[in-house]
Amino acid sequence: MEDSYIKKMNMKENICMELMQKADEEYIKNNHQHTKQECAYLQQAATLRSELASMSIGEERAYQQRKLNELNRKITKVIMEVDPEFMKRYKENKQKEKHLKNGSGAGKADTGGKEKPLDESIASWFKEAPKHSFADVSGMHELKEQLKECIANAQLKNLEDYLKMKKLHSYFFIGPPGCGKTYIIEAFAHELMDKNYTYLSLAGSDILSRYVGEAEKIVTRLFEEAENHTPCIIFIDEIDGVCKNRSLPNLPEYAASITTAFLTGYNRINSSDKDIIFIGATNYPNQVDDAMLDRVELVRVPFPDLDARKRAFSHSLKEIISLEEDFSYDEMAEKTEKYNYRDIDRMVSRIKKEILKQVIHQYPGEQNAIEALKAGKFLLTREMFDKIQEDFLPTPKDEIEKELDEWERRFKKGIE
């Protein structure tokens, strides 16, 4: 666990330094004039530095916070030159926020939303129906029933009106990387699009990759589009990037401004009382602002269960190779407890490479090898599977599971 922590810290530190170097190169390239691209690099570096500070303790945390403060001062200086109006708006919003409680009145803040992103960017937010539905999702039986109930209730508009129920349904999906959050959300969107819902989807990283001041405009416009295209489902992956917890130590000013814009947009669709289903997903719920968490229903997505792992292996292998008589997909599933879908994909990739190596050796000639596989002359054996697994390292999960468990306990205690 300690090695994993150090590895993660070093990786973030290296990326942070690379971004700062890119910012310096951008400054030099433009004859020592500050640019929006330079600021974008610095903002990304500050986000990483903030994460490093939150992951550290003692002297290391103090060091990271000093470095973050230096970055924030540099970002402020650059913004003052390339977009002075942004800083003016930010200071005005900070004054207004003093009179707000938990961000609930953030809708009054002016984030410059009147300046709209390019139409071609907006068009990319509207997605076609995902090809998979609930029928293609293995396991997650309780979660699927919960989401099916939401779909059924969404068709009872008159009854909801009579009961004076809010039309906005909000879900907050958490879980370790690779556990299938995006997959089941897309299946949910597929089912809703069969009911004539519009599907809007955007990742936090897509928003943050924009230039200074534009992220707030994108967030504002995204919620406007949702309101104008009801009924709709809006899915924001990596929500921790665009709704950063404002209580985090030394949070960069631009990140707090994006959070305010995000809460503004969310409050807008909430008060509109239109048929909107909002979903946010993250691997890091502790990074998300508390004012947002107060408004959503928590959904914990587990690791693939036995049935899901069996189905994943079977789906990837059954059409290309047969198994030896006393070996089964059930056994593969039993041997891979706590594997996530990414682990299974990597394992399958190694199995296929081993098959290729062995079958071409036993049946020289590409066509002969293919025919041997089709005819069931070459089989995937338990011995082959076990040997591959012996050298296979699934992604570490204990640390993030512990963090999620602890966060979920605090979250549930806070709402009791």
UniProtKB/TrEMBL annotation:
Pfam entry (one): AAA
Molecular function terms, GO-annotated: ATP binding; ATP hydrolysis activity
Residue span(s) of domain AAA+ ATPase: 167-307
Key words of the record: ATP-binding, Nucleotide-binding
CDD domains cross-referenced by the UniProt entry: RecA-like_protease
Keyword ATP-binding listed: yes
Residue segments, region Disordered: 94-117
Record bears the keyword Phosphoprotein: no
Name of the protein in question: ATP-binding protein
Organism: Candidatus Blautia merdigallinarum
